[in-house]
């Protein structure tokens, strides 16, 4: 069995952690998110929320027909792309609404078999400007689709790139669990970057923040807030998958 360690890094240095990043022990201290707003259509996403002077991510939408091949391959394993992922990754308008203090970019990689789980897959969708951080949709065999992060590249740049060696032990040691699903990841990434630009970069008052960001800050300032009790589902490795690399 493999359980990814939880980890969160985005824009804010969280005062309740020694390094500012949230590891497996401090992840519970992150503010809970307004899950009742998450319907897959991103109606909560306010364009330009960080201000006109913020750095917003350049859109790189993929066409809907281009996702058909991915969906067909996933369907053979009984899996499907989340509706929220399809909606967001095919929309230039949604993508350009996300500010990024590290100038991250959108780019979908080829679908890659998981090295540690039968019928699981990896799909990289975001990277930082320096190529030091990568973000993946993990399509698990049980149908869940958490977002993973890593400083390592686990998917090829294109379909013709077959030189990428994906060692299971390296993947298990490097990949961290960032969010239980795609929309929750996008929301936390968005709201923290909005706060960073207003409060840290431009030193504007908290009152200038959009309401969702004000509520997030208020939760951060509430020491007795409920623990964020979300955990990765352990993965069961199987050697029966012909697409899977040998483990150990």
From TrEMBL:
It comes from the Bacteria. This is Uncharacterized protein.
């Amino acid at each position: 069995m493999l359980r990814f360690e939880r980890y969160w890094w985005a824009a804010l240095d969280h005062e309740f952690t020694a390094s500012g990043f949230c590891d497996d022990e401090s992840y519970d201290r992150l503010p809970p998110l307004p899950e009742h707003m998450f319907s897959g259509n991103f109606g909560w996403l306010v364009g330009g929320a960080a201000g006109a002077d913020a750095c917003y991510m350049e859109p790189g939408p993929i066409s809907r027909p281009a996702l058909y091949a991915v969906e067909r391959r996933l369907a053979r394993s009984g899996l499907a792309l989340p509706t929220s992922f399809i909606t967001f990754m095919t929309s230039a308008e949604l993508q350009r609404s996300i500010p990024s203090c590290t100038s991250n970019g959108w780019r979908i990689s080829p679908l890659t078999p998981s090295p540690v789980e039968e019928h699981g897959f990896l799909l990289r969708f975001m990277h930082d400007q320096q190529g030091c951080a990568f973000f993946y949709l993990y399509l698990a065999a049980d149908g869940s689709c958490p977002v993973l992060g890593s400083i390592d590249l686990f998917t090829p740049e294109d379909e013709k790139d077959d030189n990428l060696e994906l060692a299971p032990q390296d993947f298990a040691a490097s990949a961290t669990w960032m969010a239980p699903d795609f929309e929750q990841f996008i929301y936390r990434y968005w709201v923290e970057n909005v706060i960073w630009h207003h409060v840290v970069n431009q030193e504007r008052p908290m009152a200038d923040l959009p309401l969702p960001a004000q509520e997030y800050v208020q939760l951060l300032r509430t020491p007795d807030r409920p623990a964020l009790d979300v955990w990765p589902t352990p993965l069961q490795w199987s050697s029966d998958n012909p697409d899977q690399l040998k483990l150990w």
